């Protein structure tokens, strides 16, 4: 559903991604692992069109090349993105946040038929949000705001959803709820690209894994290859896999 090949880019003169390739299979979850500074968020930003400079590479969604189109067009092609600590519209109500998230849906006005249908689907998937539809979003807890951010990204009915560390800053009791939701979305055949620092949970729900180190793919493959993988241990212990000869 999502294929990335030969992706390179960075910020000004600073290169942060080097010949990165990955794929997210239809209805599957690919987890991107790596220590802080490995280039995980930059990778998602490059795929979404938010990285200032992408010098090479191809990005395809369901066969369509989106490498050169702006971010709003990538959303229309079926890409959803929930950034780390996503900034929702805190002075708007829950419902207003959701309607704004569906801006790319067909029809005129925020309450077009397509948006109303997407809104009801969101409330069905997130009953907690239905109960708070009139509440100012900034008054909700961090976990509730994270749920709203995910629901907002789902409003245009994306083919691929990218999540950047959805557990960041959440209480442990909420983390399980968030990952339960992510698993259900995958089971509903949504293709997901997940960046996550909680490795055990990521490996538990992933179908495929990509390990980044210093902006390069150090290893990739089915999750079964990573349950007790030396490369993963080396990266999270702070070793450089490219200096040990273990890069794949």
From TrEMBL:
Keywords recorded for this protein, A-Z: Amino-acid transport, ATP-binding, Nucleotide-binding, Transport
Q: Which domain of life is it from?
A: Bacteria
The record's PROSITE patterns line, in alphabetical order, gives:
ABC_TRANSPORTER_1 (PS00211), ABC_TRANSPORTER_2 (PS50893)
Q: For this protein, what is any one GO molecular function term?
A: ATP binding
TM region positions: none
Instruction: Write down the SMART domains for this protein, in alphabetical order.
Output: AAA
**InterPro entries from the entry?**
AAA+_ATPase, ABC_transporter-like_ATP-bd, ABC_transporter-like_CS, BCAA_Transport_ATP-bd_LivF, P-loop_NTPase
What Gene3D superfamilies does the database record attribute to this sequence? P-loop containing nucleotide triphosphate hydrolases
Q: Cite the ABC transporter domain residue spans from the record.
A: 2-239
Q: Which family does it belong to?
A: Belongs to the ABC transporter superfamily.
Supply the name of the protein. ABC transporter ATP-binding protein
């Amino acid at each position: 559903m999502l294929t990335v090949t030969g992706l390179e880019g960075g910020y000004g003169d600073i290169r942060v991604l080097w010949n990165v390739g990955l794929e997210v299979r239809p209805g599957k979850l690919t987890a991107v692992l790596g220590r802080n500074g490995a280039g995980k968020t930059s990778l998602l930003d490059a795929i979404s069109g938010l990285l200032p400079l992408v010098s090479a590479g191809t990005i395809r969604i369901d066969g369509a090349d989106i490498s050169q189109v702006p971010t709003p067009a990538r959303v229309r092609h079926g890409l959803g993105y929930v950034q780390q600590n996503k900034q929702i519209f805190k002075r708007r109500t829950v419902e207003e946040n959701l309607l704004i998230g569906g801006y790319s849906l067909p029809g005129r006005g925020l309450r077009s038929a397509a948006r109303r249908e997407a809104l009801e689907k969101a409330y069905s998937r997130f009953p907690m949000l239905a109960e708070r539809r009139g509440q100012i979003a900034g008054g909700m807890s961090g976990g509730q705001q994270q749920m709203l951010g995910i629901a907002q990204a789902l409003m245009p009915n994306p083919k691929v959803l990218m999540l950047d560390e959805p557990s960041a800053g959440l209480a442990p009791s909420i983390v399980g709820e968030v990952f339960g939701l992510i698993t259900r979305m995958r089971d509903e055949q949504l293709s997901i690209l997940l960046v996550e620092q909680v490795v055990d949970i990521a490996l538990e729900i992933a179908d495929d894994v990509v390990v980044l180190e210093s902006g390069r793919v150090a290893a990739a493959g089915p999750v079964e290859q990573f349950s007790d993988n030396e490369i993963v241990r080396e990266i999270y212990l702070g070793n450089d896999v490219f200096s040990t000869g273990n890069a794949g």
